[in-house]
Amino acid sequence: MCSSGAVTSSAAHRAIDAIWRIESARLIAGLARIVRDVGVAEELAQDALVTALERWPESGVPDNPGAWLMATAKNRAIDLLRRGRLVEQKHEELGQQREPVAPDFAAAIDDEVGDDLLRLMLIACHPVLSTEARVALTLRLLGGLTTAEIARAFLVPEATVAQRIVRAKRTLAEERVPFEVPRGQDLAARLSSVLEVVYLVFNEGYSATAGYDWMRPALCEEALRLGRILAGLAPAEPEVHGLVALMEIQASRAAARIGPAGEPILLLDQNRARWDRLLIHRGLLALERAEQLGGAQGPYALQAAIAACHARAPTAAETEWPRIAALYAALAQLTPSPVVELNRAVAVAMAFGPAAGLELVEALADEPSLQGYHLLPSVRADLLAKLGRLDEARAELERAASLTRNARERKLLLERAAGLEPMSRGGSP
Description:
- By secondary structure, the protein is mainly α.
- It has helices at about 5-35, 40-60, 65-85, 85-95, 105-110, 115-125, 130-140, 145-155, 160-175, 185-205, 215-235, 240-250, 275-290, 300-310, 320-335, 340-350, 355-360, 375-385, 390-405, 405-420; strands spanning about 210, 405.
- Among the domains are: about 5-110, no CATH class; about 320-429, Serine Threonine Protein Phosphatase 5, Tetratricopeptide repeat (Alpha Horseshoe), CATH 1.25.40.
- Helix content is about 70%, strand content about 0%.
- Helix 1 packs across helix 3 (about 65-85) and helix 12 (about 240-250) runs parallel beside helix 14 (about 300-310).
C-alpha cells in the first residue's frame, strides 16, 4: 500500500467499491440464511463495509477481502443472535425438540450451503412482492447497486426506490416468507418469478422506456451477470439457459445499435461486423443446452431461437424470416399476447410481404392494451410505406413519436416521418 494517507484512502475506497459489487450478494445471501431476515442481513453486510472503510485505508486491503468482510459480518451476526430477539426465537424453536441442544452460533454460521445465492434470488423475487419491488430489491441485494443508481436507471425518484425496498423487506418479514430453497416443481414455479425480473431488468437496459438514452448498458450487464449465476445454480432448468441465451445474443448487438451521436440504429440497418461474436457463441451454446435438457421449449428458449436466427444470418437479406414467423406463432400459442402478435406480424411481413403483415396488424388496432403502445403505429407505418401509402405512414410515425417516452426514439420516429427513406428497409430495434 502507498505510504501517503490521502492516496491510500482514495485507492482503498475504490477497491472497496469494486469488492462490494463482487462480494455483496454472496455476503448478504450467507447472512440471510442465518438470521432469516433480508433486512437484517443487509444491515450486517453494510456494517462490515463500514468497518472496511474505517480500517483498510490504514491497514491496507486484505489479500482475500471477501473473506475478511464475511468474517467481520459473521462476528456481528453471532453477537446479534446471542443478545437479541433472534436468539429468543432460536431458543423457542429448540425448546420444541425432545432433547435440549445448546446453540452453537459460530458453527451454524460457518455451515456451508451451496445454494445461498439461489435462496436470496428466490426471496428477492418472491411473488408476494410487486414487480417494481422485486426489481428494486434484486438490484439492491444481488446487483449491489445503490438506491440512487437504481433510481437513475429507471428514471424514478430516489425516495420512491427507497420506499419500495423498505416495504419489500417489511413484506417479506410480515409474510414470513420461507428461507428454504423449494425443490422439484415448486422450484420451477418460483423460478419463473426470478426469470421475469431478470428479463425485465435486461429489457429496460436494452431498450430504455424513457429518458434520453437509447440503452442503459449497466442494466444489461447486471441482468446478464444474474442470469449466468442463476444458470450455475439451477443447471437442470431449461428456461434458465433459454433466458441466458436470449440475453447473450441480444447483448451481442449493443455496439451496433447506437450510432456515433447516440442515435438508435434499427436491426436491419446494423453493421453485423460490430456484433460481438463471443457473446453470440455463448448464447448459442446456452440455447443448445436448453434444447438438450428436453421437453417443450419455453417462452425464453423460443425467443432465444428467434434471436439465433438473426445472429446466424451473415446479412439482413439472408435472415430466415419464415422460420422466425413460425417461432413467433409457437410463442403466441404458448404465451398469447398482443405484443407477440405484433412481432409475428413483422416477421410475416418480412417473409410473405407487407400486405400479409398489415392484415395481422390491422387485427390488433382495437386491442385495448396496445392503445398507448408506440410500436403498434410504428410497425403499421413501416408496412404502409412499403405498400406506397406514404401519407398514412407519415401520420402513423408522428403518432408513434407522440406515444414514446424515450427522447432518442422520438427523434428517430420523427426523422422517419420526415424522410421515410429508412422505412423501405424495414426491421425493428
